[in-house]
Amino acid sequence: VVQLVESGGGSVEAGGSLRLSCAASGYDYSRGCMGWFRQAPGKEREGVALIDSDGTITYVDSVKGRFTISQDNAKNTLWLQMNSLKPEDTAMYYCATKPRRGLCSRPNLYNYWGQGTQVTVSS
Question: Which of 6, 9, 51, 118 has the fewest CB atoms within 10 Å, i.e. the most exposed one?
Answer without folding.
Answer: 118
